[in-house]
Amino acid sequence: MDLTSKVNRLLAEFAGRIGLPSLSLDEEGMASLLFDEQVGVTLLLLAERERLLLEADVAGIDVLGEGIFRQLASFNRHWHRFDLHFGFDELTGKVQLYAQILAAQLTLECFKATLGQTGSTTPSSGQRLLP
C-alpha cells in the first residue's frame, strides 16, 4: 500500500471515530481540520520524505505581539525534546506549531497523540484545505 493510501485510510478511521462524515488528503496531499471553531490544523503529506506534517495555527501576531519571536526561537532550540517547533506564516500573520509523524510510526494512536500535542482537542469540522 502506498503512503497516500495509508494516510487516507487512517484519516477515514479517525473521522469515523469522532463523527466527521469524511476526511482525506486532496490531490496535493493536504487536508485540514478545525478544532473548537478556531484552531486550524493543516495536514501535509511529504511522501518523498515519508512523513506527515501537522501545522497548527496558534494565534495571530497581532494577539501575541512581536516579542513572541524571541520566546519561540528559545523553544525551538529544544525541539528534539518535544518533537515540535514553532514558525510564522507571513501570508496569514499567524504563529504556527509544527509536528511530524514518520511513516513507519503512523498509527491512529500516534496521530491522535500528535494532534493532542498541537493543543487540538475535538474537531468541530473536517474539510479540504481551501486554495
TrEMBL record:
One of its GO terms (biological process) is protein secretion by the type III secretion system. It comes from the Bacteria. This is ExsC.
